[in-house]
Amino acid sequence: MMALAIVKPIEAPKGKPEEFVSPPNIITTPCDPWPRPYYLEDGLRKVRPYHFTYNTYCKQRWRGRELLDIFATEFRDRPQEYYKDAIECGKVVLNGKKVSSVRQIVNNGDIISHTLHRHEPPVTARSVGVVHEDNDMIVINKPAGVPVHPAGRYNYNSIVEIMRAERGHGWNPLPCNRLDRLTSGVMFIGKHPKAAEKLTDQIMARTVKKEYMARVIGEFPEGDLICDQPVMQISPKLGLNRARASGKDARTIFKRMAYYPPKGMTNGVDPEANDARSEQEKMRDSKMAWKSKRGHSIVRCLPLTGRTHQIRVHLQFLGHPISNDPIYSNQRVFGPSLAVGDARSDEDEDIIAKLSKMGKSEVAEATEYHNDMMEEYNKKKAEKLTGEKCEVCDTPLYSDPGPHELGIYLHARRYACQDGKWDYETPLPEWALPPPGTDGPTVTTEETDPMALVDDNGQPMLNGDSSSVNSQIKHQKPLWTMPG
User: Fold this and answer.
1) Residue 154 carries which DSSP code?
2) How many angstroms separate the CA atoms of 483 and 135, rounded?
3) End-to-end CA distance of the chain
4) What's the pLDDT score for residue 468?
5) What's the pLDDT at 300?
6) φ, ψ for residue 235 (rounded to 5)?
7) What torsion, rounded to 10 degrees, do the Cα atoms 358, 359, 363, 365 define?
8) How many CB atoms sit inside 10 A of residue 378's CB?
9) Which of 71, 148, 190, 222 has the lowest tally of Cβ within 10 angstroms?
10) What is the pLDDT of residue 403?
């Protein structure tokens, strides 16, 4: 026998019915030039200026802030006066509409649109090398100085857009790992979402081992060395990170591959015996603590975590920064000691102020170029504001970057799956080879392989014994202790 249930009729909701709220209006890009407006000149890939509209949702840190304040503090390629004028004349709009005041508050869900005559910085004209390609993935050797994604002042001069230009407008490259703009080396480009997601998941799960090569100032210690100083982002606008006890956990294994003394120091003969410097030059150099670190070392680096600028920050903390690093090897910013062992925060504001001038009123000058006969030439051939303006949009124009600004001595040489299913590597970069007329390794060897120091779980070990890490590795935490 079937039971019957009495169902009450559904009552209509009381009050005013809910209305559909359409998403904010946005401004579309005026043009999308194809083929891309590239041209090659003086070893650089350049882009002819074009009109473009940026559209971006309100970021969490922007909520409740004034529109002009966001542009003035988050973007450094143009002066505040430009952004004020752009807002007032309608080049910058909120949700597709011109705002009544530069003090307009930006809220969650808002879309900011900025239409401008876009000037992209040049990048190297070197091609994107292919290490391996199959139906799912392209493994590339990324050239130094080229950003992976369109960001900031870069759009078409990015790995994604350069590869799209080579393979067709409808092709959508999907980067799976991230390299800093100034860093070269192994990158994975997915051909379809499933392949990209699979490899990205492996990297996020830390089941992929990564080895980098770096060229640093001075004689780096021999043996196996771990630095596990936490890393904190100090300025998102400038991309500045520092070693900080309150930062995110970070750990890197270092292993020296070679040390090359300065020119003239051979067979134990110190070049100071034939020092041709004037007394004024000797006085100048005596104020630069890093000058006592003679020559340079080639170091193999194995990051066990993936913090932004992790290797660069750890090498600076250890007292052996990458010699041509425009940030972490810049004595104009960090002083003559280059912040060796410095985990303090009391000078952050001063450091940010000095770094913000680099590439504008001052040249970003790394220690490498104090030792170079081309120092004065490189200072002149460096990217900075020229004092000229664009005839179309009145934008302040930059000079072309010098060859020394197109990258740093940091190269992602090898990526390997932890279970041994795949392993991709590149040859040593030219700057990691022995100087002309000098003996030294031209290929990597097992004796200096930092991957041999990590077990299948990504934990440091030696000779298969992970418990011996503290007794056999020079454990660097902390290298420096604040007095008192």
Assistant:
1) B
2) 58
3) 88
4) 34
5) 97
6) -140, 105
7) 60
8) 19
9) 222
10) 80
Per-residue tokens: 368: 């490498």
Partnered with residue 154 across adjacent β-strands are: 151
What is the Cα–Cα distance from 432 to 440, expressed in whole angstroms? 10
Q: Which two tokens stand for residue 361?
A: 């009123």
Q: What is the DSSP letter of 462?
A: B
3-class secondary-structure state, position 124: strand
449 included as an active-site residue: no
CB atoms within 10 A of CB 43: 12
Q: Report d(CA 286, CA 334) in Å as an integer.
A: 16
User: What gap in Å lies between CA 166 and CA 34, rounded to an integer?
Assistant: 12
| C-alpha span between 468 and 472 (Å, rounded) | 6
The tens digit of pLDDT for each residue in 174-232 reads: 999 989 999 999 999 999 999 999 999 999 888 999 999 999 999 999 989 999 999 99
d(CA 326, CA 359): 10
Q: How far is CA 115 from the centre of its chain?
A: 26
- Asked if 84 and 66 count as a contact pair (C-beta separation under 8 A), the reply is no
pLDDT at 383: 73
CA dihedral for 61, 66, 67, 71, sign (positive or negative): negative
- Cα(484)–Cα(481) distance, integer angstroms: 9
Does residue 37 carry a pLDDT above 70? Answer: yes
**What is the per-residue pLDDT across 279-302, written as a single tens digit (0 to 9) for each?**
665 555 555 555 567 899 999 999
Q: 3 Cβ partners below 8 Å, 6+ apart? A: none
Catalytic residue among 134, 180, 325, 394: 180
Any idea what the Cα angle at residue 120 is, between residues 116 and 125, rounded to 5°?
A: 160
- The DSSP H or E segment spanning 52 is strand 50-57
Measured CA distances, 428 to 238, 298, 450 (Å): 30, 11, 15
Angle, nearest 10°, between helix axes 67-74 and 80-89?
150
> DSSP character for 465?
B
How many angstroms separate the CA atoms of 109 and 106, rounded? 9
Banded model confidence at residue 466, pLDDT cuts 50, 70, 90: very low
Name, in order, each residue with C-beta under 8 angstroms of 325's C-beta and a sequence gap of 6 or more: 182, 312, 316, 366, 408, 409, 410
* φ, ψ for residue 292, nearest 5 deg: -75, -15
Give the closest residue to 52 by CA, choosing from 28, 35, 71. Answer: 28
Which string of b and e fits 211-249 if b means at least 16 CB within 10 Å? bbbbbbbbbbbeebbbbbbbbbbbeeebebbbbbeebee
Beta bridge partners of 105: 66
Q: What is the pLDDT of the chain when averaged over all its residues?
A: 83
For residue 359, what pLDDT is reported?
A: 53
Segment among 158-172, 245-259, 277-291 with least mean pLDDT: 277-291
